[in-house]
């Protein structure tokens, strides 16, 4: 956050004294102690009188155009080391930063590196209809073969020196401006070995190979091809690769034809003509005459367009199969996201086994740079955590709700402030339910509301969709709204309750403004009201920006408060500030000690990892991890307290 004020008084304020990140004054004591294991491993630095030499790397092609492809940098730098720097050990981050153990002698302004290109596009003629949809066009397919080498220009420019002693100062509780740079070098050294030896284990959606029509039906969760939404199919198929069954040729889908195979025409060159004579023929007739293939399953479906925008190439869907190992990069539906989470989930035993195997394969003890600097990596790390009691909730019947396994059970409980439902209606879009089923649902819904203290009046009407279910979802909704508008009076525009009836999903969404429950401690003045405080939210604060938040952004807020206080002649004290950073973009995992099958407790499990001088920033800050998820081996929330001026923050972060 940067100050944009142009007031002279604000701009002329004296510069505040530099703030330091808050240090812990002992760990918390509340909750039950629990022994935990983590995927953080202790790094011991024995030689601190070492200096790293930092160089900036600039990669260019032979024509001086910058290299923008990812993954090229490591290959080029490895080749450069073999040719020019055979006896030099260095750490490279794959992009712009290179660190050496000693100063490079006779560094050239520019190195020439020649690297073999693994594969490139090969063009071959194909009998598949191409070029304006014609089977006699000159469109080509892509194959792979070794190609000639590529030449790169590498510029190395000295940036500065980074002493490793900065880490030792922080370990002793001292401040050092070079700490983040030294930690960055150490992290790059460790990551470099992993990047060369370990595989990426991230998860993604892979398209199942097979007939294209099967993929469309599965993607839209339907069984009848007549119900396919071709607009959705077009978006899902774009840029996917297919292979034809009659020619075994591979193509990339660019679009769908506007007409079916029966109607879509393409220009066909006359064999006995003068080279410019074309005759139009439908896709169906072309495959019947030239390939003796009678299209059956997809004759009434659009064709796949595998050509260019101005030169389309049409293929019938039933002759195309999706090739294997293709990432699905389109937006996922709720069911697809759920399936991805279920398939990628691992239990604690599997995840711990994978971590141990990765550490053994990394073999950090054999790294030359680590051995020279006396840097060693522990094989396991355990620490103490605390399980805090979950907050108690108050329900409408005055009883306390106590969490069990991280959940509060509202069964047979009434809301604190119930709101009635006076005007509402039911809209049915499915054929699985008849009118009697809907009336029974309404009766049970009214009874359920009465048991909860919510008075629900009978619905004004029950609307059922007309028998036109093959239309698109948008047109079906428009028709239903028109039907509702004719029957319901104008005053009934925004219903209080919408009840969507499906044979699998039966949900009721209340937007009535009631109150289900509140925290038992909300009446306690230890939790200040929202109206009595101001909140400033930052988005995307990385660990390297913590000092900037404290010494620039927070300082400007404090100066603004002083400026306002001075102009208003306010004699009250300046407000106190608490700066909290909550991070989810990290790789910390916690495991139960002595129990490989169970996850950490579902209640509020806390562990002060950085107080043990481990993890990403070897600084002793008031940091802790809070684990609130019941899923297998969850990713805890990392909370950093940069400027805590409020007590009991660990408990309050959970209660709020």
From TrEMBL:
MF terms in GO: RNA binding
Domain PAZ per the UniProt entry, residue ranges: 211-324
Gene3D superfamilies: 3.40.50.2300, paz domain (2.170.260.10), Ribonuclease H-like superfamily/Ribonuclease H (3.30.420.10)
Top-rank lineage group of the source organism: Eukaryota
Keywords from the UniProt entry: RNA-mediated gene silencing
Pfam annotation, one family: PAZ
One annotated GO biological process: regulatory ncRNA-mediated gene silencing
Region entry Disordered, spans: 122-145, 339-358
Record-annotated Piwi domain positions: 539-591
UniProt family annotation: Belongs to the argonaute family. Ago subfamily.
Protein name: Uncharacterized protein
Organism of this sequence: Miscanthus lutarioriparius
């Amino acid at each position: 956050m940067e100050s944009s004020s142009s007031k002279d008084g604000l701009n002329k304020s004296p510069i505040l004294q530099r703030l330091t990140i808050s240090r812990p004054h002992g760990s918390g004591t509340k909750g039950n102690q629990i022994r935990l294991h983590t995927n953080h491993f202790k790094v011991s630095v024995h030689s601190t009188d070492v200096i790293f030499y930092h160089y900036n790397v600039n990669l260019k092609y032979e024509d001086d155009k910058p290299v923008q492809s990812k993954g090229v940098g490591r290959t080029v730098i490895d080749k450069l080391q073999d040719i020019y720097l055979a006896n030099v050990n260095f750490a490279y981050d794959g992009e712009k930063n290179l660190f050496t153990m000693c100063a490079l002698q006779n560094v050239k302004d520019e190195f020439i590196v020649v690297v073999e290109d693994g594969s490139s596009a090969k063009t071959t003629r194909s009998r598949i209809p191409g070029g304006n949809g014609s089977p006699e066009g000159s469109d080509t397919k892509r194959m792979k073969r070794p190609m000639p080498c590529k030449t790169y220009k590498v510029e190395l420019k000295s940036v500065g020196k980074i002493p490793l002693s900065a880490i030792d100062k922080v370990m002793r509780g001292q401040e050092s401006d070079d700490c983040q740079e030294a930690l960055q070098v150490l992290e790059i050294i460790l990551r470099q070995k992993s990047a060369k030896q370990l595989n990426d284990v991230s998860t993604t959606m892979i398209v199942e190979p097979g007939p294209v029509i099967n993929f469309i039906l599965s993607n839209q969760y339907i069984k009848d091809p007549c119900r396919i939404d071709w607009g959705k199919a077009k978006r899902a198929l774009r840029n996917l690769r297919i292979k034809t069954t009659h020619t075994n040729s591979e193509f990339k889908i660019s679009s769908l034809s506007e007409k079916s195979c029966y109607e879509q025409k393409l220009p066909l060159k006359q064999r006995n003509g003068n080279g410019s004579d074309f005759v139009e023929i439908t896709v169906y007739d072309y495959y019947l005459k030239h390939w003796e293939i009678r299209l059956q399953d997809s004759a009434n479906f659009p064709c796949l367009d595998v050509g260019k925008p101005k030169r389309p190439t049409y293929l019938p869907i039933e002759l195309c199969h999706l090739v294997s190992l293709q990432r699905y990069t389109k937006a996922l539906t709720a069911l697809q996201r759920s399936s991805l989470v279920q398939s990628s989930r691992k239990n604690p035993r599997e995840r711990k086994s994978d971590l141990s195997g990765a550490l053994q394969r990394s073999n950090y003890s054999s790294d030359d740079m680590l051995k020279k600097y006396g840097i060693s990596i522990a094989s396991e790390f355990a620490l103490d955590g605390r399980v805090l009691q979950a907050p108690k909730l108050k329900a409408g019947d005055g009883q306390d709700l106590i969490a069990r396994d991280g959940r509060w059970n509202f069964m047979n409980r009434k809301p604190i402030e119930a709101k009635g439902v006076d005007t509402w209606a039911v809209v049915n879009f499915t054929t699985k339910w008849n009118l009697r089923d809907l009336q029974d649902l309404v009766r049970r819904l009214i009874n359920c509301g009465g048991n909860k203290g919510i008075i629900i009046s009978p619905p004004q009407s029950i609307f059922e969709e007309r028998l036109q279910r093959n239309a698109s979802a948008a047109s079906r909704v428009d028709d239903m709204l028109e039907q509702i508008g004719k029957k319901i009076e104008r005053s009934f525009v925004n219903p209080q309750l919408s009840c969507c009836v499906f044979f699998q999903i039966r949900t009721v969404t209340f937007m009535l403004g009631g109150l289900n429950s509140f925290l038992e401690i909300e009446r306690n003045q230890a939790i200040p009201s929202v109206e009595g405080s101001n909140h400033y939210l930052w988005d995307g604060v990385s660990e390297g920006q913590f000092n900037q938040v404290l010494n620039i952004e927070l300082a400007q807020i404090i100066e603004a408060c002083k400026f306002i206080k001075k102009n208003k002649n306010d004699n009250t004290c300046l407000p106190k500030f608490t700066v909290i950073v909550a991070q989810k973009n990290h790789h910390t995992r916690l495991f139960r000690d002595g129990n490989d099958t169970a996850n950490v407790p579902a209640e509020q499990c806390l562990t002060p990892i950085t107080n043990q001088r481990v993890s990403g920033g070897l600084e002793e800050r008031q940091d802790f991890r809070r684990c609130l998820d019941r899923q297998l081996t969850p990713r805890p929330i990392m909370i950093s307290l940069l400027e805590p001026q409020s007590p009991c923050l660990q408990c309050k972060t959970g209660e709020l």
